[in-house]
Write the structure tokens for this entry.
Amino acid sequence: MYQCVCDGCGKAYVDEDRGFCAWADESYAADAAYEDGWTEIDGKDYCPDCYDYDEETDEYKPKSDDKQ
Ligand SMILES: [Zn+2]
């Protein structure tokens, strides 16, 4: 089974509506997380707490990259 784990805080994605925390395929795990607000940046997965929208570059970026 696969989980989608945040590269920012290390938290695993949990689908609270359906009670899932692991999927049979890695891409299913990622798809479920992305539908719930997670995103991929440079090949890493981030939960909604760990990325920001950068209006200057029109891109999402991990929060840990700058001020903390
Ligand atoms: Zn996170």
